[in-house]
Design a protein that fits this description.
Strand content of chain A: under 5%
Helix content of chain A: over 70%
Distance between the termini of chain A: 62 Å
Largest sheet of chain A: none
Number of helices of chain A: 10
Radius of gyration of chain A: 20 Å
Radius of gyration of chain B: 42 Å
Oligomer: heterodimer
Structural class of chain B: alpha+beta
Distance between the termini of chain B: 83 Å
Shape of chain B: elongated
Number of strands of chain B: 4
Largest sheet of chain B: 4 strands, antiparallel
């Protein structure tokens, strides 16, 4: 079993397609978490994340031969498949604005850290919740670049492969997404102040 | 650096992304001079920290453990099916091969009979019904109108000698060759040439043959020499249409 850990994703995929169940298990253990988290961060729903993760690996079992190593890494391929499934689910379930109160219980829960004092813990939890809500309120095309580049720590190149767009598009979308997030995270009065300030002050060219 | 340029790099600066050292120094210097850009950088850094917190918060999340079991089970089911599928595909090839041989045999038989059938038809056309009538009285089947039978029998008397060829046909199917029998088999055809990316194996999938007329110049594309003097004439061709409606192969007929 030790030697399997040293095998690349492509080797594991090849063995899996040849009928090796342990190769599937190894590949699953290696890649499931990032796929699950990606789906969860994109949808805000655990049930969708679980379904998508399962669909991705079922797809790999059935049509894994369509993967072309020359076009990118298997991890990118799997995230691309996951992305398609997530977007399809969001379209089907009309969850493009998934911040309804009845979804709260099913959504992402806080991971309360016992190492922090209660106040810090609360502040941290509040910050996370605010960021999560702001992220889920973004349009999918901006949300996915934030999830990939900021939360999944995927490079611009890989993100471009996953999304099937140019690196420049990834950069510009990320820039725009961060600007939208800042607006959503800013308190209401600050937004008003910012708006009035932006009206009054011209660009400085110091 | 000005604010416009600062705006372009502030995200990378706040995220700690790799960037040119000179640009980084200039951006930081600009943020110290410009209060608005300084606030902008602080906002970006706050956002980056928030996103990092969210990422760290979700880091331990993973799919439920039972999903692996489900997938393994699905994989086993698929794998059980897979060898059967491979076996069935092999047996399918054998079936196709047997079917092809049978088809060939039937084609040869049809070709052989086809050369004979017109002759039979000719014989049947020339063979008079009274021949049966002549044999009729000897048969056990009752005749409702014997008078008419007699009349017909008398009327067809000169043709009574014809039952002999009929008997010969039922005993031995190879009839003497006649010009009529030759007519449909006078064609000479090339082998089927696969079209496009079809291979020879795909020809075994069967299909329908459609007779078309092509310019003789089309022969050149299939490597068949063409008499340039008859370049504009038409030539017959059989196109093998697959079950999917695509043309799979072509042969030329003369």
């Amino acid at each position: 079993m030790t030697h399997r850990n040293e095998l690349s994703d492509n080797d594991l995929l090849r063995q899996m397609l040849a009928g090796d169940e342990d190769a599937l298990a190894q590949l699953y253990r290696r890649r499931q978490a990032s796929i699950y988290r990606f789906a969860l961060q994109m949808s805000g729903s655990k049930s969708i994340a679980e379904d998508v993760t399962q669909e991705v690996f079922l797809f790999l079992m059935r049509q894994g031969h369509v993967f072309d190593a020359a076009r990118g890494a298997l991890s990118s391929f799997l995230l691309g498949v996951a992305r398609n499934h997530v977007l399809r689910r969001l379209r089907v379930e009309h969850l493009l604005s998934p911040l309804a109160d009845d979804n709260e219980d099913e959504g992402i829960g806080f991971q309360v850290s016992s190492e922090l004092c209660p106040l810090e813990d609360l502040t941290r939890a509040e910050t996370i919740e605010n960021v999560r809500k702001a992220l889920l309120s973004l349009p999918p095309k901006y949300r996915e670049v934030v999830v990939l580049c900021e939360l999944q720590d995927v490079s611009y190149v890989e993100t471009a492969e996953i999304l099937g767009c140019a690196i420049g598009t990834v950069r510009s979308r990320l820039h725009r997404a961060r600007a939208l997030l800042l607006i959503k995270l800013r308190p209401a009065e600050s937004v008003e102040d910012a708006n009035s300030a932006s009206v009054k002050s011209a660009r400085c060219f110091a | 650096m000005n604010c416009q340029r600062f705006e372009q790099v502030v995200s990378e600066l706040a995220r700690g992304q790799m960037m040119e050292a000179e640009a980084r120094t200039e951006a930081l210097a600009h943020s110290e001079e410009c209060e608005r850009c300084s606030a902008r950088l602080r906002d970006e850094e706050t956002l980056t920290r928030g996103l990092q917190l969210l990422a760290a918060d979700m880091e331990p999340l993973a799919a439920p453990a039972e999903m692996e079991l489900k997938l393994r089970e699905a994989f086993r089911e698929r794998r059980v099916v897979a060898p059967v599928a491979v076996g069935s595909s092999r047996s399918r090839y054998w079936l196709v091969a047997v079917a092809a041989v049978l088809l060939l045999a039937i084609s040869v038989g049809a070709f052989w009979l086809g050369s004979e059938a017109p002759q039979e038809r000719v014989v049947e056309k020339t063979a008079p019904k009274p021949a049966e009538v002549v044999n009729g009285p000897s048969e056990p089947a009752p005749k409702p109108e014997p008078k008419e039978v007699e009349y017909q029998a008398q009327d067809q008397t000169p043709k009574r000698q014809l039952p002999k060829p009929i008997r010969r046909n039922t005993g031995n199917r190879r009839a003497p060759e006649t010009p009529v029998a030759h007519h449909p088999t006078n064609e000479v055809a090339t082998d089927f040439v696969p079209l496009g990316d079809m291979n020879a194996m795909s020809l075994q999938d069967g299909g329908q043959i459609v007779r078309v007329k092509l310019r003789r110049s089309a022969l050149v594309k299939f490597g068949i020499p063409v008499n340039m003097e008859r370049y504009n004439e038409n030539v017959n061709a059989d196109v093998l249409i697959g079950v999917d409606g695509l043309a799979r192969a072509i042969r030329f007929v003369q």
